[in-house]
Amino acid sequence: MYSEIASNKRKSVLLVIIFIAIIIGLGFVFDSLYGVGNYSGVSLAIIFSLLMTSVSYFHGDKIALATSGAKQIVQTDNPYLYRLVENLCITVGTSVPKVYIITDPAINAFATGRDPAHASIAVTTGAIEKLTNEELEGVLAHELSHVKNYDIRFMMLVAVLVGAIAILSNIMLRSRIFRGRDNDNRGGQLGGILMIAGIVLAILSPIIAEIIKLAISRKREYLADASGALLTRFPDGLANALEKIANEAQPMANASQATAHLFIANPFGSGKKFSNLFSTHPPVEERIKRLREMGK
């Protein structure tokens, strides 16, 4: 467990370094496309990367929660859910995170934050209504395991930084298209090459974003499953919850590619085999199988 926590902290630092490198690269391409000179594009890229890194670290959880439509609650709003979270936190030895509810009939949940002292857990109304006490407890234990293992910091950074790369590349491409005619005076052949470079950049950036998202090891989900099962001492609780999620396969209304990897299950539902190849989560069937074996 401690080695996993140390690994997550190292990967968080590595992710920030990769992000800054990519943004600086985009700034260099911007200078080349528009002939700005004096590396002003690179300078702006450095400022942008440092700003986005700070925002993602200190406010990334708020962005993820707002994107999913989560609303914070206090104990009196939902004593049942809050009590489950409190009891598990006492068992695991961590402070109680902020609790949020997402108004959505799908069964799902996620945890976010930069460390256990600044963590949040969001649960859908579908999970609260459709899962039994033991099943919901298993889901919450899984998410608390992500909190204790510092998975939440790495996943939060991914959600914001990857989104920033996609947005910046899209802005650059649109700028190239709308300003293309003005820049054609610098040479038709050169203008065509730069146009192609901008299009290639816009295509590659989402792919790079997906590769970074896939850096979230599927083994980490298995570890959270196992840790959560050990916490509740009832692996079948989470296994039954995952079975309900798999059988329902209901997509969430506010599902987003940027935050999909945060959830305990794919918020877009199932049925797309090709998309499963790029999933940050292991197959639900395999997760259920391992949990059943733990319960024997």
Automatic annotation (TrEMBL):
The keyword Transmembrane helix applies. Its EC number is 3.4.24.-. The active site is at E143. The keyword Hydrolase applies. Zn(2+) binds at H142, H146, E221. GO terms for molecular function: metalloendopeptidase activity; zinc ion binding. It comes from the Bacteria. Residues 77-294 form the Peptidase M48 domain. Belongs to the peptidase M48B family. It is an enzyme of class 3 (hydrolase). GO terms for cellular component: plasma membrane. CDD domains: M48B_Htpx_like. This is Protease HtpX homolog.
